[in-house]
Design a protein that fits this description.
By secondary structure, this protein is an alpha/beta fold. The chain has 2 domains: 121 residues, Periplasmic binding protein-like II (D-Maltodextrin-Binding Protein, domain 2, 3-Layer(aba) Sandwich); 102 residues, D-Maltodextrin-Binding Protein, domain 2. Helix content is 39%, strand content 21%. The protein is built from 8 helices and 10 strands. The strands form 2 sheets. Strands 1, 2, 3, 4, 5, 8, 9 and 10 form an 8-stranded mixed sheet that branches. It has a two-stranded parallel ribbon with strand order 6-7. Strand 1, helix 2 and strand 2 form a beta-alpha-beta unit. Helix 2 packs across helix 7 and helix 5 crosses helix 6. The protein is globular and about 55 Å long. The chain starts with 5 loop residues before the first helix and ends with a helix.
């Protein structure tokens, strides 16, 4: 093999070096395909940065991805910003959302992780019973912004067939109920029990009860943004659903839920 002169070798190296650097830089800028970044808001006991395991929903979501070989980053924001960042593709997706026609424009929805049961909370001093939404049309009801309470309730509120005003959080509307500013508040049952025990506390919590009739039973899901690469979105959704099924099959899902 003929020898290459030192001068020629340096010229060849100088010519190729910029392309090597560009290739290496491009490689380092590629996102880690096995890392999933999701947003969430505060919804204890399901999702919260301040409680054990960041909540049972978060634990199930993280473990469903991990069992499929992913690492997961959860970033907490106010709910509106949590939705916005994921919907715009700045994150892979978000926890924990109920499917609605509007949300389906922005996201792919996973198989249900939990089913949330919303009921009407009220003061024990207020004698309350209901069968249809007609029974509450003259009562003062406080719901939470950005939440859905079922198609019938949402539509009745939109058409002002029932008397609904909105708060910024579930805890805020519980305090409004205790202050006498509402007759009813629709609230996920376990969330309400958690807030009364850990946020409101006694003796105020003892003044509140709830009606057993469900207002809504709704699936709560992990969502994947439609603004990220479509193939990545489909793969993430498929793998999450597969991981969730494995957690249910091996007993891990039930173990997490027993700790609720």
């Amino acid at each position: 093999m003929p020898k290459i002169s030192e001068h020629l070798a340096l010229l060849i190296l100088a010519f190729h070096l910029p392309f090597v650097c560009i290739a290496e830089q491009s490689s380092t800028q590629q996102p880690n395909q096995k890392t999933v970044t999701l947003s969430s808001g505060e919804w204890p006991p399901y999702t919260s940065i301040d409680i054990k395991g960041e909540g049972v929903f978060t634990q199930v979501a993280v473990k469903s991805f991990e069992i499929m070989g992913y690492s997961v980053k959860i970033k907490y924001y106010p709910w509106k910003r949590s939705y916005f960042l994921a919907a715009n593709g700045q994150l892979d997706g978000s926890l924990a959302w109920a499917p609605t026609p509007e949300r389906k424009k922005d996201f792919l929805f996973s198989d249900p992780v939990i089913f949330a049961t919303k009921v009407f909370f009220h003061l024990k001093s207020f004698k309350f019973n209901w069968s249809t939404l007609e029974d509450i049309k003259y009562l003062r009801t406080i719901a939470t912004k950005q939440y859905t309470y079922g198609e019938d309730f949402d539509q009745a509120a939109k058409e002002e067939l029932i008397n609904v005003i909105y708060s910024n959080s579930d805890e805020q509307k519980l305090n409004m109920l205790l202050a006498g500013r509402a007759d009813l508040i629709p609230l996920e049952k376990l969330v309400g029990i958690y807030l009364l025990k850990y946020k409101i506390g006694e003796p105020k919590a003892a003044r509140v009860t709830f009606h057993q009739k469900p207002l809504q039973n709704t699936p709560i899901c992990v969502v994947i943004s439609k603004k990220i690469d479509p193939q990545r979105a489909r793969v993430l959704l498929h793998n999450f659903n597969s991981g969730l099924a494995k957690l249910r099959a091996n007993g891990s899902y039930d173990k997490i839920m027993r700790d609720l």
